[in-house]
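Hello Y.,

Per our agreement to keep a running log of every chain we model this quarter, I'm adding this entry. I've kept the format consistent with earlier entries: sequence first, then predicted structure.
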Amino acid sequence: MVSRTLRHGQRAEVWIAEAERGSAELVYSTDKLLLEAPNWAPDGGLLLNGDGLLWRLELEREVALQRVPIEDLPPINNDHVLDAKRGLIYLSANDGHIYVAPIEGGTARRITHDPSRYHFLHGVSPDGATLAFVEIPQADLSVPGRLALISTAGGETHYPEAGSSHLDGPEYSPDGAWLYFNTEEFASRPGHAQLARMLSEGGPIERLVDSESVDWFPHLSPDGELANYISFPPGTLGHPADLDVEVRVIRTTNWRDIVWQFPLFGGQGTINVNSWSPDSRRFAFVAYPLEQA
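Predicted structure for the entry above:
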C-alpha cells in the first residue's frame, strides 16, 4: 500500500464542527501534506496520519503541526484509534498489521501476525481489552471485508457472525455493548453500504438507516448521545477520495433524523475514524478542495 498525496491544486483542510450549533471552523490548511482521519487526543490536540507518519495538530495554543516520533512502526494508513484512558494509540500500517504505541510517541509493538491478510483497525473496546477490525486477504482485495476481533495483547483472531457482505468501520459504543459499522448486507445494488449495529457479544444485525446515499463510518460521541457518519452519492462503490460528500450528525435516539449536514469535497480520509472531542461537543473532519472547485 502507498500513502496518498495531494493532487495538483489541492489542499488538506482540517475543520472543527460544533455538534449542537451546526457550525464549523477551518483550523488548519496545507498544500504540502495530505492529512487524514483525525483522532481527538485527550489533552486537546488532534492526531492525524500523513505521508505514512503520525502527526499532532496543536489546537489549544498556536496552531502547529508536529510529527509524533514512533520507532519500529512501518508507514501507516488512516485507520488509527485511541485508548485515551491507557495513553495508547493503535495503528494500522501499510504492511497489513496493527501496532500499538504511546499517544505521545515511543516504541511501537506489533499485535497481529498473519502475513497473508490486511488488518484495518477501527475500534478498541472501552475496557482496552479488544480490538475490532476488518480483515481482507492480501491475495484478493475483492473479497468482502470480514468483521474480526483480537485481544490487545495479541493472540487468536475471532470472527463474530456479521453476514456475508462487505463490512467496514466496526467501532464500539461508549458502553461497549454494541459494535457499529457500515455493511452491504441490506444492499439491493453493488456498493450500497448502510449503517448498522450488533451486540458486541454477537447477535443479529440491526439496520439503523435506510437511505439512497451510500453511508460509511458511524462514530458515536463519548456520551453516546450523538453520532456522525459520512454519506457518499448514490451508486458510489467503496469509500473513494475526491467526491462531493456530506458529514452528517444525528441523535442516537433517532438515526433517521439528520440534525446537521456538512457538505464538502472529500471522502477517503475525511472521517475514517472517531474524531469526537472528549466532552462530546465537537468533532474534527478533513476536506480536500481543489482550486477549480
